[in-house]
# Entry
Amino acid sequence: MAAAGWLRRAAAAMPRLPSGLPLIPPPPPAPLTEAQSLVVPGLGAAAGPAMELMAVPKKKVSKYKKGLRNGPKALKPVPVIVRCRCCGRVKLPHFYCCSGERGNPSESSS
# Structure
């Protein structure tokens, strides 16, 4: 009879739906098979116990050290004024000068 009392108390403590029926908990999930084993993205299925670890810096790199390392990568100033290859006049880069004619651009032969 002691088992019946325990069962009655467990049933009373169980949450119920508004219709009065007891709420049945969902069944526990099935254990994973070998094919469904947990796969970490990026490591592939064959990673297994030998995980590939990435390099991590031991200390933060200061702004000064970072500046020393990245200094040669800075943009260099470009020449603002260049000479035309054909006539030798001073012009801005990527601007039209004399259409490639040799000699004086003011002399136009028609």
